[in-house]
Amino acid sequence: MRAVKNIFKGRVKLILGGGVVIAIMLIAIFADFIAPFDPNRQNLLVRLKPPFWMEGGSTRNLLGTDNYGRDILSRLIYGARISLLVGIASMLLSCLIGTVAGVVAGYKGGRTEQVIMRFADAHMAFPDILLAIVMVAAIGGGALNMILVLGVSRWMIYARVVFGLTRSLRERPFIEAAASYGAEDRYIIFRHIVPQMVPVLTVLATLQIAQMILQETALSFLGLGVPPPAATWGNILAEGRDRLFVAPWISTAAGLSIILLVIAVNLLGNGLREKFDPRAGHGS
Amino acid sequence: MLRIAARRLALAPLTLLLVSFVTFVLLRVTGDPVDIFLDINRTPEQVEALRQRLHLDQPLVVQYLIYVRDLLTGDFGQSLQYGGPAINAVIPTIVPTLQLVGLALLLAVVLGVAAGFVAAVYKDKVPDVVLSSLAVVGQSMPSFWLGILLIQFFSLRLQWLPTSGRGGWENLVLPSLTLAAFLLPNFMLVTRTAILDLMSEQFVQTARAKGLSFTRILLTHIFPNMVNPLLSFLGIQIGTLVGGSIITESIFGWPGIGRLMIGAVANRDVPVVLVTVFIVSVTIIIANLLVDILQSIVDPRVRQ
Q1: Residue among B157, B140, B150 nearest B175 (CA)
Q2: ipTM of this predicted structure
Q3: Does B195 touch chain A (CB under 8 A)?
Q4: In a domain, A36, yes or no
Q5: Cα(B92)–Cα(B98) distance, rounded to whole angstroms?
Q6: What pTM, to 2 d.p., does this model score?
Q7: Into how many domains does chain A fold?
């Protein structure tokens, strides 16, 4: 991280990362107008066409076509929609669960803290893919289930950070003062504790979106995510693997899209961290 | 040390109980178990047999207790794909997975520590900037795509290594590299930070002031003290390693437990899903236990 920071100072990171993220978001939102083709329309006459700069490609399908003659550019554009939707929604869900658990554990202390934080420790050791496998076996795949799986599987990351913050905040004079004036717990939590956490949570949540997107593509790739023929980046990558010998451009296009979005989100998150915390550099 | 091991050991059954509870809720309570366990082509006899086996006529609490008893005795039910007890399908997959995970871990530790060491020694110079940038890209890259790129280059273009399957050592090269890539960037960055932190410690400064050679300081002061941060990081990363192994096995058709698991989900073979999830969970718990014990052996401070 530090080396890259030397190349990109905080502001540049924010602008570059944020710019790319916003651009991809706009593309995802206006996919209906931008995508040149219907992502699911098959056209067997033009199947497995390479991108336009390769021999045999044409400007009709800029990034080529897949095994069913579907336009890869259009599929990538619609795939951005699912990746961002799942990434952001599951981040919100896990942030909500984790913050509630962390604040309660940190504020109440004692046995409540023991139960919640040991539960978080136990969950921490488990790969989310395991939970996803059981959930998909029970209730099937799909975008909504993906959000549930990813949302539930990352709550403890927020819980640990929020717990630490709440515990240190609880000892601060302004909280004690509020309590001695007779403020209710709920008032103190929402009025004094939660607002203090917004910067830290923003950074953590942004960086987590990147992890969620990577995880969603991995699950889709394994056939545990949104089922085909839906255009998700993981699905496109999985299709590309099966046609690696004849059409390597399919998996390359999907892989590069994923990297671009994830690097942009990571840059944005690190930029935000430096903005909120001038000391920067310490892990989250 | 014994106290720590005992405390951890006490936590292990609790974790397993949690796993059993979550799987029970997901597989029994979220929908009709008959729909979850059997496909559309089920016969009334199959449904009746399942009702008998799962004791669906009993209250949920009793069902759960029977479920836990079955798990403890290793009775996961009959596999739908393979016939016979589900646990028999898992046994031949354990060795291939251990081979893959073991080699990948070795690669990740050796390469990660070496790269982190170079980056720390040449801090803020060219090698550090290059390696650290690579690590950041590595963290943003889906490692399963790296696997595909490796197949593309070494198997299809150069035709040096096979694309998939299990056989001689050449089948292990690409899968273990891919799996190692899940951990490599993080291992490198942790090593780099650990070394840099240690370099500013007083005992290292003293050793320098005494005029000890750099190699000597490294071998006697830095490396021994690096083991502990690396071990605790390894503990956190066991989950990543297991998850990565499931993905890697699927890419390369490696006949391990991860591929079995994914195949079982695709074929709706719930007993096999259950047994694989349990075996993996137990392995993770044991691995964490081992890391804790190792840590307290290596670092006396942990024992207090």
Answers
A1: B150
A2: 0.78
A3: no
A4: no
A5: 11
A6: 0.81
A7: 1
Subunit contact A266:B132, Cβ cutoff 8 A: no
**CA within 13 Å, CB half, B290:** 8
- Name the packing angle between helices A155-170 and A72-108 (round to 10°): 40
Q: Is residue A52 part of a domain?
A: no
User: Across-strand partners of B85?
Assistant: B78
Is A266–B136 a contact, with Cβ atoms under 8 angstroms apart?
A: yes
The strand pairing partners of A65, in sequence order, are A71
Nearest in space to B139 (alpha carbons), one of A211, A12, A13, A254: A211
* Structural domain contains residue A2: no
Measured between beta carbons, which residues in chain B are less than 8 angstroms from residue A214? Answer: 140, 142
Assess whether the previous peptide bond of A50 is cis (omega < 30° from 0): no
Q: What is the pLDDT of residue A100?
A: 93
Structure tokens at A19: 């710019």
CATH number for the domain harbouring residue A23: 1.10.3720.10
- Encoded tokens for B227: 């083991």
Instruction: Give the domain range for residue A249.
Output: 12-29+68-280
At residue B206, φ and ψ (nearest 5 deg) are -60, -45
Q: Whose CA is closest to B117, among B219, B204, B25?
A: B219
Residues 138-167 of B with CB under 8 A from A: 139-142, 144-145, 148-149, 151-152, 156
Measured CA angle at A42 (ends A38, A47), to 5 deg: 120
Residue A6 lies inside a defined structural domain of this protein: no
Amino acid residing at B236: I
Instruction: Please state, in angstroms and rounded to a whole number, the distance separating the CA atoms of residues A70 and A220.
Output: 19
**Over the stretch B193-222, which tens digit does the pLDDT of each residue have?**
888 888 888 888 888 888 888 888 888 888
Note whether A206 contacts B: Cβ–Cβ < 8 A: no
**CB spacing of A218 vs B142 below 8 angstroms:** yes
pLDDT number for residue A10: 67
Tokens (6 digits) for B182: 């899940």
* Chain B residues within an 8 Å CB radius of A281: none
